[in-house]
Amino acid sequence: MPALHIEDLSEKEKLKLEVEQLRKEVKLQRQQVSKCSEEIKNYIEERSGDDPLVKGIPEDKNPFKEKGSCVIS
């Protein structure tokens, strides 16, 4: 399917696309931000023990650990 360039469309075609998008969006189930944010926070806290960015990577398993030092003479 070729790429759609909005500037190539007539005003009527643009409005049809907008209405189509709005029809899709109105069907989406919405939730309160306060409820979703609490669920996200709980999800993150439950898994933070396994997260290498929080816990760190053990030195013996770190693929980016420097193999040796650089000496310039």
Automatic annotation (TrEMBL):
Q: Where in the cell is it found?
A: Cell membrane
Q: Which UniProt keywords apply?
A: Cell membrane, Coiled coil, Lipoprotein, Membrane, Methylation, Prenylation, Transducer
Q: What is its main location?
A: membrane
Stated membrane topology is: Lipid-anchor
Annotated coiled-coil segments of the chain: 5-46
Q: Which GO terms describe its biological process?
A: G protein-coupled receptor signaling pathway
Q: Does the keyword Cell membrane apply?
A: yes
Q: Which SMART domains is this protein grouped with?
A: G_gamma, GGL
InterPro entries of this UniProt entry? G-protein_gamma, G-protein_gamma-like_dom, GGL_sf
* Gene Ontology CC terms: heterotrimeric G-protein complex
What GO molecular function annotations does the UniProt record carry, in alphabetical order?
Answer: G-protein beta-subunit binding
The G protein gamma domain is annotated at: 5-73
State the residue spans of region: Disordered: 49-73
Q: Does the keyword Ligase apply?
A: no
Which Pfam families would you find in this protein's record? G-gamma (PF00631)
Assembly mode: G proteins are composed of 3 units; alpha, beta and gamma.
Which PANTHER family does this chain map to?
GUANINE NUCLEOTIDE-BINDING PROTEIN GAMMA SUBUNIT
Return the similarity comment. Answer: Belongs to the G protein gamma family.
Function, please? Answer: Guanine nucleotide-binding proteins (G proteins) are involved as a modulator or transducer in various transmembrane signaling systems. The beta and gamma chains are required for the GTPase activity, for replacement of GDP by GTP, and for G protein-effector interaction.
Q: Please give the name of this protein.
A: Guanine nucleotide-binding protein subunit gamma
